[in-house]
Amino acid sequence: MLRTTHTVSDKVFSVAGLRAWNSLPISVRLTATKSTFHKHLKTHLFRVSYGHLIVSYSVLSIDFIRLLDLLGYLYGASDHR
């Protein structure tokens, strides 16, 4: 039998809302304006959701650049590092 440690009070919006707010980074919580808050919140949520893809893309980009450098070296391009 699966037991949960949540009580009814944990599911109340006032409790869940405060927990969600407190889980945000300080940089998001301490913004000066509503529009800045929205921008920082959106960026934070994007990084939480898709951060692993950004890292993977960066690594692929670096590998692709190295491949281009190698091809340029192999085929006699004058500007190789």
Question: Descriptors for this entry?
Answer:
single chain, 81 residues, mainly alpha, 3 helices, 69% helix, 0% strand, elongated
Number of helices: 3
As for the number of domains, it is 1
Order of helices and strands: HHH
Task: Choose one word for the global shape.
Answer: elongated
Q: Major beta sheet, specifics?
A: none
Judged by helices, strands and strand pairing, the structural class is: mainly alpha
- The stretches of 5 or more residues where confidence is low (pLDDT under 50) are none
What would you report as the Rg, rounded to the nearest angstrom?
23 Å
Helix content: 55-70%
Number of strands: 0
Mean pLDDT: 77
- From the N-terminal CA to the C-terminal CA, the straight-line distance is 63 Å
Binned strand content: under 5%
Kindly describe this structure.
The structure is a single chain. The protein has 81 residues and is an all-alpha fold. The protein has one domain. It has three helices and no strands. The model has no long low-confidence stretch (mean pLDDT 77).
Structure, briefly:
By secondary structure, this protein is mainly α.
What secondary-structure arrangement, pairings included, does this model have?
Elements lengths: L12 H11 L2 H4 L4 H41 L7
